[in-house]
Amino acid sequence: MAETKRLICRGDELAECGDGVRFVVDHQGRSEPAFVIRYGGEVRAYINRCMHIPYELDWHPGKFFDSEGLVLICSVHGASYDPATGQCVGGPCYQGLTNLTVEEIAGLVYLAE
Q1: Does 113 score more than 90 pLDDT?
Q2: Which residue pairs, CB below 8 angstroms and at least 24 apart, start in 103-106?
Q3: 20-57 burial, b if ≥16 CB within 10 A, otherwise e?
Q4: Per-residue pLDDT tens over the stretch 50-69
Q5: Where are the strands (E) in the chain, listed by range?
Q6: Are 110 and 96 in contact (CB under 8 A)?
Q7: Which residues have CB under 8 Å from 88's CB, separation 6+?
Q8: What class is the 5-112 domain?
Q9: Do 76 and 91 meet the contact criterion of CB atoms below 8 Å apart?
Q10: Where are the domains of the chain?
Q11: Beta-carbon count within 10 A of 94 CB
C-alpha cells in the first residue's frame, strides 16, 4: 500500500518553540487528538495524550511548551517531554509520547498516513 500524505498546516504557522497546531489522526483504529510543533528547526508531531494519565497536554489550544520553550509540558500534572523525541524527561510520566511522521515540503507540513 502506497503512503499518502495529508496536509496539516503551512510551515510558517509553526514558530520555533512556539504554539503548535492541533489536528485529529486515525491511530490504531481510533480518532485521536494530535499536534505538530517546530523545534530545532524541524517539524515534529505527537499524539496529544500525556503518558501519565491520558489527558491532552496543552493548557490552552496549541500551548504545549513550558514558559522557556525547553520542554513540552502536561497542563494537568506537569509531566515533561523532550520536544525533539517525545521522551519523558521529568514529572510523572513513565514513557514517551507517541510520535507521528510528518514532513515539511515546499513550506507545507504533511502527515504521512
Answers
A1: no
A2: 103/5, 103/43, 104/11, 104/43
A3: bbbbebeeeeeebebbbbbbeeebbbbbbbbbbeeebb
A4: 988 888 999 899 999 999 99
A5: 5-10, 21-27, 30-39, 42-47, 72-73, 80-81, 88-90, 99-100, 102-105, 108-112
A6: no
A7: 51, 79, 80, 81, 94, 95, 96
A8: mainly beta
A9: no
A10: 5-112
A11: 8
Is 111 in contact with 104 (CB distance < 8 Å)? no
Report the predicted TM-score, pTM, of the whole model to 2 decimal places. 0.93
Q: Residue 80 has which C-alpha cell?
A: 515533561
Grid cell at residue 10: 503551512
In the block, residue with C-alpha cell 510551515: 11
What are the grid coordinates assigned to 55, written together? 489527558
**At which residue does the C-alpha cell 525547553 appear?**
70
